[in-house]
Model the fold of this input.
Amino acid sequence: GQQVMQIPQYQHVQEGEDFTTYCNSSTTLSNIQWYKQRPGGHPVFLIQLVKSGEVKKQKRLTFQFGEAKKNSSLHITATQTTDVGTYFCAGQETSGSRLTFGEGTQLTVNP
Amino acid sequence: DTGVSQDPRHKITKRGQNVTFRCDPISEHNRLYWYRQTLGQGPEFLTYFQNEAQLEKSRLLSDRFSAERPKGSFSTLEIQRTEQGDSAMYLCASSSWTSGSKTQYFGPGTRLLVL
Done:
């Protein structure tokens, strides 16, 4: 079955440093979605990438979808303490079907 | 609040008991999904519905698990004869199949602890 791998599992940064998490699917995806989960919370939707090679930005967050639609990355510039949480990528093989989540990257930011 | 809602938010039960969780999706969404998340892991897919039809079930959904969406609106997930390994957060999500980006929006989850 489809597998989605995400690295690193943990990332500790000083406030102001950059952060990147990488996601790789075993199969070609229809789209990939990114979620953020705060401790004790539930996944909150950040963005969806659909097109090959797509790049989207949300303020300090930059999301990329690979040309082969099998990998993706999330980059945060100049982290802030409010960025703390676990970031998950989730792939869909077919639009509207099940999401297959990566293991997540837990980000901690030291002030 | 027009987001996905789940009830109860927390449930403690003894091994062998049955439990039922409810999910109310965003009102115009016709697809509803159930996921399970254990500590330190990403959510794992259990099943999903389009309107009242259950379209897919994961191998994780053993015979003790059953989900329904009788009128195509809210859904229930029942676990019979609970086991300690069922302890997890059960997440519900919904999406619109007929329009938009088909993004899945998650509810706050039901945290189950089986003693």
Q: What stands out?
A: Residues 41 and 51 of chain B are 29 Å apart (CA to CA).
